[in-house]
UniProtKB/TrEMBL annotation:
Domain of life, source organism: Bacteria
Sequence intervals crossing the membrane: none
Gene: rplJ
Keyword Ribonucleoprotein: yes
Name by which UniProt lists this protein: Large ribosomal subunit protein uL10
A cellular-component GO term for this protein: ribonucleoprotein complex
Length: 177
């Protein structure tokens, strides 16, 4: 690969990292060609972009970013690396990795690191936690539900006790007469 070609790849990666708040770096070494193709197909079906890129090119693209990705240098950007770009849905690549492992019976791909809204997660031990993250839409739905709940309780309380109050007032007025 010539220097110009490397510069083009670095610029493309920088654009991808800049436009995606969420990305995962995986190690798919030891997988057969059929397994790699199955992983790519599953990623495509889920709307995840999966690219295998040299570590030095990933490192140079990340160095251009405003966020400090230095912790990735020592442990994440070693060996075979594939990058998964998920766009808005932060937990989709983690769920996809777990689904692929279950279907294939393989322990690959291995999560090397992830960046979720510039928060860094390094190591395979974060996979379960990342897969259980809620999406932005799910969180907004929960907040709306929580905000609506007190208002509904107040309204139903007023309707229910309002009838009781009217009944009590009517009984008291009848006693007076």
């Amino acid at each position: 690969m010539t220097r110009e070609e490397k510069a083009i790849v670095i610029d493309e990666l920088y654009a991808k990292f800049s436009s995606n708040d969420n990305f995962y770096i995986t190690d798919a070494s030891g997988m057969s060609v059929a397994q790699t193709n199955a992983l790519r197909r599953l990623c495509f079906e889920k709307g995840i972009e999966y690219k295998v890129v040299k570590n030095t090119l990933i490192q140079k693209a990340l160095e251009k970013m405003d966020t400090d990705y230095a912790p990735f240098d020592e442990s994440v950007l070693r060996g075979f690396s594939g990058v998964m770009f998920s766009g808005e849905n932060a937990n989709l690549p983690a769920k996809t990795i777990k689904e692929f492992r279950k279907k294939s019976g393989s322990k690959s791909p291995v999560l090397k690191g992830a960046s979720i809204d510039t928060d860094l997660f390094i190591g395979e031990e974060n996979l379960d936690m990342l897969s259980s993250l809620k999406s932005k839409a799910e969180l907004i739905g929960e907040v709306i539900t929580l905000l609506q709940s007190p208002a509904k309780n107040v309204i139903s309380g007023l309707k229910g006790s309002g009838g009781k109050l009217a009944g009590i007032l009517k009984t008291l007025s009848e006693r007076e007469n």
